[in-house]
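worker-03 picked up job from queue 'complexes'. Input manifest follows; three sequence lines, order preserved.
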Amino acid sequence: MNRTHVNCTVNGDDVDFLAADGISLLDALRDELGLTGAKEGCGTGDCGACSVLIDGKLNCSCLVLAPEAEGAEIVTVEGIADGDRLHPLQQTFLEGAALQCGICTPGVLVAAKALLDANPDPTETEIRYALAGNLCRCTGYDKIIRSVQEAAVQLREATR
Amino acid sequence: MRYAAPTSVDEARSLLVDNPGSRVFAGATDLIPQIRAGRPQPSVMVDLKRIERLTSVSHGDGGWTIGAATPTAALTADVDFATMFPGLSEASGLIGSDQIQNRSSWGGNLCNASPAADSVPALVANDARVVIASAGGTRTAPVDEIITGPGQTSLSEGEFIIEFTLADMLAGASDAYLRIIPRTEMDIAVVGAGVRLTMDGDAVAVAKIVLGAVAPTAIRVVEAEAALVGSTLDEATLARVAEAASATCNPINDKRGTIEYRRQVAGVITKRALVIAADRAQNGATS
Amino acid sequence: MTATENRPTYKWVGTRPIRHDGYDKVTGKARFAADLDLPGQLRAVYVRSPHAHARIMSIDTEAAEAMPGVKAVVTGADFPDLGVADPEYDVSVNVMARDTVYYHGHAVAAVAATSRELAAEAAAAIVVEYEELPAVFTIDEAMAEGAPLVNENNYTKFIKADEPSNLSTITNLERGEVDGAFAAADLVIEREFTTSAVHQGYIEPHACVVDTGADGKASVWCSSQGHFRVRSSTAAVLGWDVSRVKVTPAEIGGGFGGKTTIYIEPIAARLSEMAGRPVKIVMTRDEVFRATGPAPASKVRVRVGATNDGELTALEAWMAYNVGAFGNVAGMVGAMSVASYKFPNLKLEAYSVLTNLPKSAAYRSPSAPHAAFAIESVVDEIAQKLDIDPIELRLKNAAVEGDLTAMGMPHPRIGFVECLEAVRESEHYGSPVPAGAGRGIAAGFWFNIGEQSSATVHVNEDGTATVITGSPDIGGSRASMALMAAEELGLDVHSITPLVADTESVGFTDTTEGSRTTFATGMAVVHACRELIDDMRSRAATILSVDVDEVVWVDGAAVAEGNDPVPLASIAAQAKRTGGPLTASASLNAGGAGPSFAVHCCDLSIDEETGHTTVLRYTAAQDAGTAIHPSYVEGQLQGGSVQGIGWALNEEYIFNDDGSVDNPSFLDYRIPVASDLPMIETIIVEVPNPSHPYGVRGVGETGIVPPMATIANAISRAAGIRMTALPMSPPHVLRALNER
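worker-03 finished. Artifact:
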């Protein structure tokens, strides 16, 4: 299999790696860059556990070929906190008990961040549809939705 | 397997000619899982997204030109487009989750040739055409001539779709798309109905009805279209239309639905989509 | 909301601190099994059966072994034959077929290579010759006269069986005199119910890394609900002593019962032994659906008799569970789970039926949901026919302390009545049913179990503490352990570090299952803390020069009258001169597990033209005994409810004619997504379990028992159709509407 030298930015850092052309961005993040926050739950884009932002857009990294990342800015769950200050979503998820096993949590957080970046005041229905691509089997979603709502309030207050 | 990202149509065309067994892709949301499952194994994966023309959206000269690799999320976010083609915009927005929406494209949705593709009935209802890159240059074709069967297209080896063209929606016309799925998201259409109506006052002047997931390809319901013309979408006409839609279906039993179910709900959503389209056509409603 | 019945108030128990493992989970640092890589690690890929039942005539691995990067290949020949009588025999054959494959997807070989891609290419080069055997897939086929034998090594359990059979268990339970009771009943309703196989649907596929050293010892890192069971089963399959296997539990990405057994660990261990390098196995989602335990499909016939004033006088049920290709006690457990109502006359006949489908596994209250769907549907129909409020009818018949379960055991103090009353008094039940909607009620029960647990508690030199258990944390149990330790020791909960140790660093502990962890492992933690407190009282007595009997433990300090209290930190600081490190361990086999009841209420609407159901409002009430961390108790109620809603509405295994799974993906195995659901309102009822120091019952499982009947009952009231088959997906509902 051919290998491509890929240069991109991951969580603000310039990185480069060699990617076999058939592997996914998810595999490259996990195996080449050691960023195991994004998870593989299905490998077919149906569970959202591998969600990352590519140039600000939410993507399933299992459905992106690693060489496609050339020149892109990628944000994973490892990059959403501001140094040692957790992102409000991370904090409200902790306080709101929005995670149980935690396997879906990285993808849910990234998807929720993409939503709030684009829509700071979403309705409950908008949150539910925005997170429909992120399966959670533990929580029944209730506490996830509430924690996103609470983070949205905090983010709006912080920017007021 | 090799990855290539050409930046021009010509470069892409050469890659395909020079590399038998190569495949073009845009979002690859269907192709990557297929490759992982062991079929197909392309020699070269030709990424079309770095060709500017394939991700450009332009409006002018009485029509729209939309790059075949444009993410559907960009289309649904385009207010001018969504206002003029609310049904086509909604159909495009139903292709998968937000994650998928940032990858999925009309070109991919069409060329994957699933009978259940959401954008296809809406594209056909709106008489969309495609510009195709061929070995010798380009050719154009109506969208409904591309898919020939499940997973099968009329494109020759080495051909790919550059862009879609759509004539502006005329005053008094509008469209709608509805689908039936078991959940509220993340499912493949069990039945999809794309319709477009041109109204003359309260009466239907022109109708086009296209169903998805009820036959090997998206199908028109010509009999129902004829029944609609001149009607005011009264109950009796809608009942006749629903019956014609159900009768036109040629569905299969599979894990997503039964023949019996598909037939019945095809009529139901056809009716509902027509009511929405007529309302939009008459009132200029955008949603 | 919490409905609490005179339980003591505590300083820490019942509060909602941030869970200790939460920080790593929101920052992506938590290490799940697939996140671990070892130097020199190989990846292994399986070859699986393309037939539902076939004799393996030959396996040719020569070409595969010669391929680049391939370091080891295993087949059934590389594992010992344990003999049919061995309790791990079925597991050993399920993880790697020997001379016969029993289901489509059954493992027949595995290849370890330097990359997953090379392993997959080599696996594809292995040639297996099969001779197909007749296969059966349904309960009816398998129970038919003269049916082909599913598995020639299955003998019916618990009886003297000379011949192999398609029945794994046969259970008959009876009390009173049902025939007379039915004859005397004013109303008798009989119906047959069916349910499809459903998967636990954990988002994390099974994964492990195993490094078998030159000393012959295997170090295993894996995703499991019980790493001691992984140790014993892995050792058994390999023919080893358990001392040759060390298992370290990784964070587990969901289990719900499905990770109480093993699939991959002994395969990786043997490959690693052969290659001399660590081997990692990560299942694909497709493999998870095709070859790991679903919950059984079922067929249940129920007949209930009642008087005109709503007294339930008789229950007769015939129950069969489709358990797949290996022995399983699902039918027996299903019969035992019938325990919610007094039923003076009762007759149950239950079967565990083998078919050539994947071996079924536990799933949250295993077997109880199937039985409850049937019985709670018929009980509701009786309420409808008699025009009695469905809660009042249940209150009239609800089991209370001393009433008998189907097994004939008297219930201990239980909170079923309290749960019914909590729903009756809820804002939800008091509100008008939305126009066009229907409201359904149903109840559920699960035993909960005790079993063996161990805990070690260290008080550190600065007065902080470490709580070590052997129970993998699948729903927040580390936080619960820390809360109970905080309450005992009088420490801030965040001064306590709870952790789950490997099999060599803590005493034997049974699997996290049966809603037992907060109950039994929590009890071990409390016992260890109390031993430590006794030790610290004695240290304080030394420090104060008083008799130890004069020292009591109050709010984190040793107190002796006439002296200043000696805080824990001070005792810790002086540990060296008072006898050395402060540490205590407790191991126990916990008795007195407290059953947990639940009552659910749902409002839903039906699109009568498409059969699509929309859940508008959902409330789950459940007796927790005592909620140690209420947020995670609510989480269990909500998660169980939503798994049940998925089971009710859309989840199902769809099998092709050849027994292969037609929908082995999250695209077509449709678990609920966020937009399918409303908020799930919870009512925590607290009727403390007298057998636990804090009154814990265990809450993990019961929540999945009521939803199917709750939804069926709501559909009945919304649309006048009685759904008797799961899932109640749009095509099925529309067909029932058409036939209405």
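worker-03 released lock.
Chain B touches chain C at residues 37-38, 180, 182-188, 190, 255-258, 260-261, 264-265, 268-269 (CB under 8 Å).
The radius of gyration of chain B is 19 Å.
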